[in-house]
Amino acid sequence: MDPIFSSGDTAWMLISTALVILMTIPGVALFYGGLIRRENVLNTMFLSFVTFAIVSVLWFVYGYDLAFGNSIGGIIGQLTNPFFAGVVESNSLSTLAPTIPTGLFAIFQMTFAAITVALISGAIVERAKFAAWLAFIPLWLTLVYLPVAHWMWGGGWLYQLGALDFAGGIVVHLTSGIAALVLVILIGVRKNSKLLPHHLGYSVIGTGLLWFGWFGFNAGSALGASNLAVSAMIVTNTSAAMGMLGWILMDKLKTGKPTLLGALSGAIAGLAAITPAAGYVNVTAAMIIGFVASIISYYAVSHLKPLLGYDDALDVFGIHGVCGIVGSLAVGIFATPLINSLITGGLVAGNPAQIGIQALAIGVVALYTVVVTFLIGKLIDRFIGLRVEDSHEVQGLDLNLHEESGYRLS
Amino acid sequence: MKRIIAIIRPDRLENMKQALEEVGIHGMTISEVKGRGRQLGITESYRGQDYKVDLLPKTRIEIVTPQDQVETVINTIVQSAQTGCIGDGKIFVSPVEEVIRIRTGERGEKAI
Question: What are the backbone angles phi and psi of residue A68, rounded to the nearest 5°?
Fold first, then answer.
């Protein structure tokens, strides 16, 4: 791609950026907000909003450079323009997306960082201290997200190794899912850990916004208004649809009745699983990926979680973590140079070694995320405390942490 | 004077209100309540796990009426709120010692 400014690409990436913003606020906020007890609806939504705000600031203070700056040994980017000083003024085109401005690439990537951290909040809602979450956001962003984003996307060592992650199966879904699992183990089980959604209508709207916004997330990751963006959009939609149908089928087989929350969960599973593969696979592969990821996710949520007894409130690990893994492995199987000429492809394209590279990337990132998230969690627990007082948890966090109520009679 | 408290299905409320209006009963107090009777409960399933929900949403209607209208009110509520399925609800009747209209200070049946 020649470094020539394209207004078409720029227009599409501006729209994609806005679409991904819509995914976090209000998409994730509404999706999560509907699933918890009514006493915690504001706190749950607040976690997403405040995450977006903090990441939005830190990203331009140092985040973008650490993730996408010149690589220091493949480990982390160089901090060359703190506070994004001079970057917008220079009117430069992005080195990683040479037809759009650097600033646009940076803010597009910022939205990925924001949603990744916001996703984690779903695991620890209804019992986490707000102050603990405020401390978690910058620490986790800096110590987990930025290095991993650099490794996979910013020219780091996994990128150099040939690991593929089109829009964030490893960088976004695996890291958030694994971090969620670590945090819930540290923070413990809620006093009332039943998943009885207080307002599924919110979750329907939230899921709709996520599905809609995901076109910016995945098709936007083509970094231009191209055939690849079209292909990514089609497979994203197909996988979401198959994911939804897969979960409905599982509900029908297991309980005899399809559920709406199941359908929403399946759609999110299909979307998360196709994310790493969106720019590398065809429609047939997308159908398989969405369907299989949804069924594996169903078992993780309905069987593995009760079996192991951890309290992942909104199944961030069961859906995002598991589907991040499934999708990232699927890249090693289904990726094809017919869709994306920049790659060699995976198993079906005659390159079985890609599966090994994907598995290595998954394993290393998962292990790194476990260790660093555990240390961050322990640190916060020691100095701030991860968990609210029992009485606050019982009465609800909206009143006790924010002195507000989501619903009142008069 | 009697106080009639009826616990009915929420979706029968409009039907019941209309039926009561047709027999000249307008005053009532409505509240959304939860409870259980012989219906016991229902099972809800979220993400593959079943939860027993044993308190079901119902609507509670409170009507204070002169003695001679009690049977009319009861019959109207039964006819308009009945579906024949378990969970239709119950009616409770109890005596009322006094009624006072706050605006005027009137007492007794005039204040109903």
Answer: -125, 5
Main-chain phi, psi angles of A324, to 5 degrees:
-60, -40
Contacting residues of A for B49, CB less than 8 Å apart: 195, 302, 306
State the Rg of chain A over Cα. Answer: 20
What are the angstrom distances between the C-alpha of A43 and each of A103, A115, A123, B103?
32, 17, 13, 43
Global ipTM: 0.80
Chain B residue numbers touching A297 (CB-CB < 8 A): none
Token duo for residue A351: 């390159």
DSSP label at residue A199:
-
Whose structure tokens read 């796990």?
Answer: B49
Pairwise CB contact (< 8 Å): A251 & B45: yes
Say how many CA atoms lie within 13 Å of B45 toward its Cβ: 19
Output the six-digit token pair for B75: 């019959």
Residue-wise pLDDT tens for chain A (410 aa)?
678 999 999 999 999 999 999 999 999 999 999 999 999 999 999 999 999 999 999 999 999 999 999 999 999 999 999 999 999 999 999 999 999 999 999 999 999 999 999 999 999 999 999 999 999 999 999 999 999 999 999 999 999 999 999 999 999 999 999 999 999 999 999 998 888 899 999 999 999 999 999 999 999 999 999 999 999 999 999 999 999 999 999 999 999 999 999 999 999 999 999 999 999 999 999 999 999 999 999 999 999 999 999 999 999 999 999 999 999 999 999 999 999 999 999 999 999 999 999 999 999 999 999 999 999 999 999 999 999 999 999 999 999 999 999 998 66
Among A362, A369, A392, A312, residue whose Cα is nearest residue A121? A312
- Per-window interface: B 44-103 vs A, CB < 8 A: 44-51, 53
